[in-house]
Amino acid sequence: MPSGIGDGVASKLMQMLKHLCDMARNNQSLERVRHDLQLEENLEQHKKGWMIQKIGWAILYIGLILAVAGIFGTGPVSYKTQVQNGNTIEYERFLRYEAETDMTFRLKDVTDSITLEIPQQYLQYVDVQSITPLPDRNRTINGVTTYFFHAGGTADIHCLLMAKKPGSITTTIKVNATPFTIAHQIYP
Hints:
five-stranded antiparallel beta sheet, about 30% helix, 2 domains
């Protein structure tokens, strides 16, 4: 999670929870009414119930904020960009089971060919639906699938992926021998 977004959200949430707890402790707005009816009143139990309700609302708001931020899938916290030797990879860290996502490689200073190496360990969790442009050929040796492309100058490679197994996966994908360590959390 980027430090600026995560720190700000966490700080706001902590302030909101502290405010709710202070309100519950110092609740002076409860009016006690004297009456002649024979009713059993337990105002302390009502206060506890109201406090639990406020905490429930706070948890609901926290979940909503995290969902909008992208912690459970598509959103600003989920998108990740890495740059190595002038080459860039863009992908989402948080995926949903059987949901499609894009992974894009932006390459500079390509001489005449590109190799994209994806470990089989990664392919157990994520299925490559399509690659654009189409590779000239591919091969799998020693647990690594390598795709070969012809290109020159700058090139973009777009991979359409589908998460096929819930869990966490961290792996290294190489593009022209430049390693990119990527991590996904795949939710059911």
